[in-house]
Amino acid sequence: MKLKSHELLVGPGRAPARAMLKAVGFTDEDLSRPIIGVANTWIEVMPCNFHLRRLSERVKAGIRAAGGTPIEYNTIAVSDGISMGTEGMKASLISREVIADSIELVARGHLFDGVVALSGCDKTIPGTVMALARLNVPSLMLYGGSIMPGQFQGHDVTIQDVFEAVGKHASGRMTNEELKDLEDHACPGPGACGGQFTANTMAIAFEFLGISPMGRNGVPAMDNRKDDVAFDCGKLVMDLLKQDLRPRRIITRKSLENAIAAVATTGGSTNAVLHLLAIAREAGLKLTIDDFDKINRKVPLLADLKPGGRFAAADLYAAGGTTLVAKRLLDAGLLHGDQPTVTGRTIEEEAKGAKETPGQQVLRPLSNPIKPTGGLVVLKGNLAPEGCVVKVAGHSMTHFRGPAKVFDREEDAFVAVKAGQIKAGDVVVIRYEGPSGGPGMREMLGVTAAIVGAGLGDSVALLTDGRFSGATHGLMAGHVAPEAVRGGPIAAVKNGDIVVFDIPKRRLDLELSQKDIKARMKKVKMPVPRYSSGVMGKYARHVSSASEGAVTS
């Protein structure tokens, strides 16, 4: 094989490089083999990525067994769940770009022949794949796996329940002792958030994209089989190297459509829109926000998963896993079955190996869908000319009309919810929280969960130019674009204005004429940027619209 690493390591002129690598323990034999980067997103601050050092050792063992030399390196991660509702949450989406940049830079700087990327929390998953698409060397991504459900008062719980409990507690529906008991038992060990929230959504999406081996991401974090999966992924990257099978042969327009279908049928996170748009851009492929709605209209909602449903990610794995999801979609004629995957098999070949657990209730049959269409819809209108994203899994509201309660930052809205100032029939509007205006497009799980916890989930709507957590449910429109700070009409909304959601017509409108909106926009005074320097200021200046994936350029 002609190896990139030979440029770094072969010949008398490369003696200095070899000398430095020998200083950290590599031998001449090690340096004669293909060099495989193991890009790890391990960090000690969160359960999602905490166990990845264990998995990286197994990946490295697999690489060595298949004749390669692994070199592990690390990048950053920011916990959405921990930073949620604070100024720190603004760092989350920005971290996706830093993760991708840093993985790319190390691999380019050291001429790695291939890469295995290990991911866990929300932004590490797309960040790793963005880097693999840029590098386009034989590579794959392995997700660290889901946390197991916690136990509270005799039933399964996830971190979603804790966020919603804050609203229950504030409204007097939960005692201090009950909240503490839930807090102590919701997260029983390592692994990413347990519902079909953003981490598990993207883990499934990337199996359908083909860049992760089918069925392996779904193995829970602390299941002993995850170690075997990691070892096999180490061997698998060496097969990719021998075949010269690279990410841009796997990531195609058709495989992106497969990934969107997987998100739609499992009721996945709205964040999938941002992340798949970003992946398409890195792979040089055309994908628009409207493509998500087109596919969603064709794909039935089959998975009864949290936050809108009953079951957690570990339950889906036990029911038959993502391979079973693929078989459902293949049987319905909703997959491009000829698309290649990192296993060397097509998505159709993978789907045909599905095994369904008898009596499982997590994934419905095609004859009995939860809904005839998928879990995500895209609305446009005079409030969102470039579009916004609504997750319709878990609720049945198709229309909503109500007066706006307007807030210019998430914290103010959260205080209003806790103080009982939001009433049934209101439309909560949170602006200046977009990619540039935030900056960083914070998730609003603190607010949305507090609304649900206060018993208002079915009687209040919300819209924002920020984002939602995958754990959000209810009638919530995120990613409203253009964002307020970039001249979006969301900046013109005033308290008491009537806002209309019309899901069947895919509309989000302010009951105000275009002439009046333009007149108001001329009088809008944009807030002073919260950050003018550092990574936050740089990101605010260069980030694109949410409708384009909130990517930097």
UniProtKB/TrEMBL annotation:
GO MF term (any one): 2 iron, 2 sulfur cluster binding
Binding site for Mg(2+): 80, 122-123, 443
Pathway(s) this gene product operates in, as recorded in its UniProt entry: Amino-acid biosynthesis; L-isoleucine biosynthesis; L-isoleucine from 2-oxobutanoate: step 3/4; Amino-acid biosynthesis; L-valine biosynthesis; L-valine from pyruvate: step 3/4
N6-carboxylysine: residues bearing it: 123
Protein name: Dihydroxy-acid dehydratase
HAMAP family: IlvD
InterPro entries hit by this protein: DHAD_IlvD/Edd, Dihydro-acid_dehy_C, DihydroxyA_deHydtase, DiOHA_6PGluconate_deHydtase_CS, ILV_EDD_C, ILV_EDD_N, IlvD/EDD_N
Binding site for [2Fe-2S] cluster: 48
Record keywords: 2Fe-2S, Amino-acid biosynthesis, Branched-chain amino acid biosynthesis, Iron, Iron-sulfur, Lyase, Magnesium, Metal-binding
Record text on cofactor binding: Binds 1 [2Fe-2S] cluster per subunit. This cluster acts as a Lewis acid cofactor.
4Fe-4S keyword on record: no
Family: Belongs to the IlvD/Edd family.
Domain Dihydroxy-acid/6-phosphogluconate dehydratase N-terminal: 33-349
Pfam assignment, any one: ILV_EDD_C
Residue numbers annotated as active site: 469
Protein's UniProt keywords contain Amino-acid biosynthesis: yes
Catalytic reaction list: (2R,3R)-2,3-dihydroxy-3-methylpentanoate = (S)-3-methyl-2-oxopentanoate + H2O; (2R)-2,3-dihydroxy-3-methylbutanoate = 3-methyl-2-oxobutanoate + H2O
Function: Functions in the biosynthesis of branched-chain amino acids. Catalyzes the dehydration of (2R,3R)-2,3-dihydroxy-3-methylpentanoate (2,3-dihydroxy-3-methylvalerate) into 2-oxo-3-methylpentanoate (2-oxo-3-methylvalerate) and of (2R)-2,3-dihydroxy-3-methylbutanoate (2,3-dihydroxyisovalerate) into 2-oxo-3-methylbutanoate (2-oxoisovalerate), the penultimate precursor to L-isoleucine and L-valine, respectively.
SUBUNIT field: Homodimer.
Biological processes, Gene Ontology terms: isoleucine biosynthetic process; L-valine biosynthetic process
E.C. number(s) listed in UniProt: 4.2.1.9
Cofactor(s) required, per the database record: [2Fe-2S] cluster; Mg(2+)
EC primary class: lyase
Chain ranges of the Dihydroxy-acid/6-phosphogluconate dehydratase C-terminal domain: 361-550
